[in-house]
Please model this.
Amino acid sequence: MPHLDGAYNFARLLVGRDEDAQDVVQEAYVLALKRFPGYRGNDARMWLLAIVQQAAYKWLKKHTKQSYMVRFDPAIPATTTDQPLSESSREEQAQQPDQTLNRLPVELRAVLFLREIEGWSYKNLASALNVPPDKVMSQLSQARQRLRQELVRVHQQDLKHEL
Amino acid sequence: MNCKEAGRLLDPYLDNELEPRPRFELKEHLSLCPACWFLAQERRELRIFVRAIAPTDKAPPELKTKIMAALRQEQTKQTFAFLRQPWVYAAAMLVLSLSSALNILFPDVGKEDSRQAVLLHSRSISADHLVDVASPKPQVVKSWLTAKLDFSPPVIAFPGSGYTLIGGRVDVIQNRSVATVVYGNGRDVITLFCWPPKRNLLAQDDHFIKGYYVCAWSSAECNYILVSNSRGAQIDEFVDLFRDQVQSGAY
Model:
């Protein structure tokens, strides 16, 4: 079930908890069925993942208190958020292999996943996410810059703890 | 090209999104500028890091069951909306719609392997980066691949046949690392992907995807997918040569 695995991993990256990701994927498949008569594209996986993203954003809007869209400001260093992505416990979050990506705003996580893991071109990203190609490049650049900042911060924290 | 311009183009370059001319100019700049070369290496490593930490698990088995139940429920809801239309047409459209949708949403696994193989083959050609280890010697390519993977792939040369071993690289198909061995045949490129089958043997299949000829088969040791823009008959000859060599153990 290759599309299902990709959809599930994408949803997990966006909403955090396994249970919530399953709900999002289930909702995405139902949406896909509703929209299927209008499907005209060649790449079903791309079409489905775009729907997963929409379903995830809808879920986040409904279930999280804070705004999930954070405008990137290069003057502000990356900081940890005290608010979990969902109502998951700290134990559940600790079980996730790496929290570095989860510290990025969800919009940036999405574009990074679709580019680096799914191999989407800038043109495909722009078309599926309905944004101009320039915005795709800008979001990718923000995501990578933010990730680098986060890695530096974590590294500095580790050094402090060692001292 | 100066460093400022190079820095601006570095991400699209590493993403294989640059047009040929700026790509060539940037490549030349990187070969001459250590600072920019180092920056490119850092950015490459960041990409590798993202790929390493992103979730790549199998979906829980109960998820498909839940989805199928939800889809059937949705189908029932849609049935009532169709009742206003002639019932024969409406029923046929519903069945067609759901089964067609399921074919798209839960595709054949082997075809997905082939689709990804074609993507990797075409990307390597357009990025002008066919191999990570270049050598016509099978033992050199095999040693390199074995060191990078958790299995030892067959790497075979065919002297005098017209098929030249160019080298190898490691790719990822459906979240698994695969050995990629690249051959030249005149101006054509033949890319052969292989990985241990574990429990999933690939069904033998020949077809075309996006203009590329794709041939899939498996043995007890490996699943194979071959992609090329060469004609079918030439590929059949290559596949026969390869399988004979593998069977004879002469590699």
In short: Helices of chain B lie at 3-14, 20-32, 34-53, 61-82, 87-105, 109-126, 138-148, 232-248. The first strand of chain B starts at residue 133 and ends at 134.
